[in-house]
TrEMBL record:
Transmembrane segments: none annotated. The chain holds residues 31 to 201 of 577 of the full protein. Mg(2+) binds at T21. It comes from Komagataeibacter xylinus. ATP binds at G17, A18, G19, K20, T21, T22, R123. This is Multifunctional fusion protein. The gene is aroB.
Length: 171
C-alpha cells in the first residue's frame, strides 16, 4: 500500500468537531494504513471514558496520559492519527510530532464546529457552557498554535470526502 507522506505518520490536529476522526478514517482507508484515535487509545489504556478521567484525576492528568499515548504511537509504524483537540497545544507533543510525523490542521469555521459537537461523551470541556462560547474561546487560544502544523486544510464545506481529497492532494 501507498504510505502517507512518504512513509510518515499523519497527525490530524484541530478543534473538537473539525472532523479529525471522520476524515482520518477516510484517509487511512485510502492510504491503506491503520487509523488510530488518541482519545480512544487513552480510554482503552485508562479503562474509563475521558469524562471519567477528567472527573476523577483532573485535566492535567488527562493531558499527561495524552502526551504519553501520542509519543508511543509516534514511535510505531506509520498510521493516520487523529488527536484530541488539546493535544497539539502541548509543546513536547508538538516537538515529537514535528520529528516523527506530518501534521495537518483541519481548519473549520466556528458555526460548522458547533453543529458537529453533539456527541459529548468524550468532551467534558463542553459540559459547563454553551458549545459556541467554549469553542470561540478555544479558537482564539488554539488557532495560532495549530497554525504551526505542516499543512493547513480548510474543512468548512461540511463534506468530509472533499476534505479527505484536499488532504491527499496536499501531502
Ligand atoms: C479536547 C478534545 C477532545 C478530547 C478531550 C479534550 C480538547 O477530543 O481529547 O475532551 O481539549 O479540545 P476531540 O477533539 O476529538 O473532540
Amino acid at each position: 500500500p501507498r504510505q502517507p507522506g512518504s512513509g510518515r505518520t499523519i497527525v490530524l490536529v484541530g478543534l473538537m468537531g473539525a472532523g479529525k476522526t471522520t476524515i482520518g478514517r477516510l484517509l487511512a482507508t485510502r492510504l491503506g494504513v491503520p487509523f488510530v484515535d488518541s482519545d480512544e487509545e487513552i480510554e482503552r489504556a485508562a479503562g474509563c471514558t475521558i469524562a471519567d478521567l477528567f472527573q476523577r484525576y483532573g485535566e492535567a492528568e488527562f493531558r499527561r496520559g495524552e502526551r504519553l499515548v501520542i509519543r508511543r504511537l509516534l514511535s510505531g509504524p506509520p498510521v493516520v492519527l487523529a488527536t484530541g483537540g488539546g493535544a497539539f497545544m502541548d509543546g513536547r507533543t508538538r516537538a515529537s510530532v514535528r520529528e516523527h510525523a506530518v501534521s495537518i490542521w483541519l481548519r473549520c469555521p466556528l458555526d460548522v464546529l458547533v453543529q458537529r459537537v453533539a456527541d459529548r461523551t468524550h468532551r467534558p470541556l463542553l459540559n459547563n457552557a454553551t458549545p459556541h462560547a467554549v469553542l470561540a474561546d478555544l479558537m482564539r487560544l488554539r488557532h495560532p498554535v495549530y497554525a504551526e502544523a505542516d499543512i493547513i486544510v480548510d474543512c468548512g464545506d461540511d463534506n468530509v470526502e472533499h476534505s479527505a481529497d484536499h488532504v491527499l492532494h496536499a501531502l
